[in-house]
């Protein structure tokens, strides 16, 4: 009798389905739009990621991390993130003209305004997604991804075919967020409209660590894109941004799932069992990630030529380096999740902030020499970070081991 897929398999299928849809859609739009339009859209999406990290991600993560999640906490988190998202939309409308003017890109203004419309759906969707993961309903989440991805990218491809490439890329993200919330609302019962002041205070305190980590993580991952866009312009950002997207989709599909699973495993591990669980999850990640990223590095030129066309051939010059950095980053994500699950969230934020400053300095120094040097600087900082995270996790495991050894059997 065939064995049914377990929860871990459905979790990977869900994440891989999302990332595959994102990747195929982005490649198709990039081929139709060209580097400059793609780079302009990337600026709008970078702004969106920053606002989400500042306003929403910490709260939604705090809801999911609660050891005992009551309906009152769930309802407060859901509606609080909806209200914060609405405030973010209003903030975007206020600052978008100034941001577009500072960038010298009038075409950026409508993209920022459109991107802001996704914020009211992002937080509530993340809360429901996290609730489903707590309940291990990964099969439903995989179905959700299928229902959401196809129509969102279908509309985006239609816009790109009509010559609205930059608009298409941003519209895809907005549609994904709202369709995601709608699908989750169909699959799971929405919490009632309730806000509890005490729960808001608890979530705000719990969100501080998560929001800080998300913000430093955003800067660490996007530092080179921010600098490339500011210094070299949208066409260079389009080239570099698409290369990073190719790699990041693979990182999210592998490292993102693995880090979420190891966080759950270690947060609820029995005393003395954390090291074995971490080693098991690390082996599984390496078995999946190593052939993927090495294959991308070796096949960069034919992939770019076949999928994107001649306008994008410059990307093949530095995509192999980005692919190697992606392998390192996937492992680093798993170690960061392990560190947070073992109670090292505060030190993880500080270490990530220091690595971010190092990355900004390295990328700024490399930028005058071209995008290949920027990619090499990013790889170098990723390797330094891997050593840092490995040492910190080792120390944390030793501390946890000593504490568990003193506990009565």
List the helices and strands and how they pair.
Elements: H1 7-33, H2 35-55, H3 57-65, H4 71-103, H5 108-116, H6 119-134, H7 138-161, H8 165-187, H9 197-232, H10 234-267, H11 274-298, H12 300-307, H13 319-341, H14 345-366, H15 371-406
Helix pairs in contact: 1-7, 1-8, 1-10, 2-5, 2-8, 2-9, 2-10, 3-6, 3-9, 4-5, 4-6, 4-9, 5-8, 6-8, 7-8, 9-10, 9-14, 10-11, 10-13, 11-13, 13-15, 14-15
Overall shape: it is globular
The largest β sheet comes out as: none
Q: Order of SSEs, N→C?
A: HHHHHHHHHHHHHHH
Per DSSP, the total helix count is 15
> Mean pLDDT, nearest integer?
84
Our count of domains comes out at 2
How much helical structure, as a percent, in the residues? over 70%
pLDDT < 50 stretches: none
Class computed from helices, strands and strand pairing: mainly alpha
How far apart, in Å, are the first and last alpha carbons? 41 Å
Tell me the total number of β-strands. Answer: 0
Q: What oligomeric assembly is this protein in?
A: single chain
Give the amount of beta strand, in percent: under 5%
**Radius of gyration from the alpha-carbon trace, in angstroms:** 21 Å
């Amino acid at each position: 009798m065939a064995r049914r897929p377990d929860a871990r398999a459905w979790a990977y299928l869900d994440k891989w389905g999302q990332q595959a849809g994102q990747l195929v859609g982005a490649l198709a739009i990039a081929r139709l739009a060209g580097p400059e339009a793609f780079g302009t859209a990337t600026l709008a999406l970078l702004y969106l990621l920053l606002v989400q990290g500042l306003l929403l991600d910490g709260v939604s993560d705090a809801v999911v991390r609660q050891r005992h999640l009551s309906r009152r906490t769930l309802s407060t988190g859901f509606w609080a993130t909806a209200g914060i998202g609405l405030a973010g939309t209003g903030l975007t409308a206020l600052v978008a003209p100034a941001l577009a003017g500072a960038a010298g890109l009038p075409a950026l203004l409508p993209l920022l305004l459109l991107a802001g419309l996704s914020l009211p759906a992002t937080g509530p969707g993340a809360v429901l997604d996290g609730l489903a993961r707590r309940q291990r309903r990964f099969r439903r989440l995989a179905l959700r991804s299928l229902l959401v991805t196809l129509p969102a990218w279908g509309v985006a491809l239609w816009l790109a075919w009509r010559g609205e490439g930059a608009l298409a890329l941003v519209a895809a993200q907005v549609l994904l967020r709202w369709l995601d919330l709608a699908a989750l609302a169909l699959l799971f019962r929405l919490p009632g409209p309730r806000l509890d002041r005490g729960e808001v205070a608890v979530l705000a305190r719990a969100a501080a660590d998560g929001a800080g980590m998300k913000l430093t993580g955003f800067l660490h991952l996007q530092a080179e894109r921010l600098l490339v866009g500011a210094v070299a312009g949208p066409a260079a950002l389009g080239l570099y941004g698409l290369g990073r997207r190719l790699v990041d989709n693979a990182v999210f599909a592998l490292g993102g799932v693995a880090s979420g699973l190891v966080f759950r495993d270690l947060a609820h591990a029995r005393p003395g069992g954390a090291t074995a669980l971490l080693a098991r999850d690390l082996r599984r990640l390496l078995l999946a990630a190593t052939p993927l990223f090495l294959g991308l590095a070796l096949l960069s030129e034919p992939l770019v030529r076949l999928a994107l066309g001649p306008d994008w051939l410059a990307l093949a010059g530095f995509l192999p380096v980005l692919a190697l950095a992606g392998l390192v980053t996937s492992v680093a994500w798993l170690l960061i999740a392990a560190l947070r699950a073992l109670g090292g969230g505060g030190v993880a934020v500080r270490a990530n902030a220091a690595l971010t400053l190092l990355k900004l300095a390295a990328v700024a120094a490399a930028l005058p020499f071209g995008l290949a040097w920027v990619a090499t600087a990013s790889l170098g900082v990723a390797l330094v970070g891997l050593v840092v995270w490995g040492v910190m996790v080792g120390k944390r495991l030793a501390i946890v081991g000593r504490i568990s050894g003193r506990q009565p059997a």
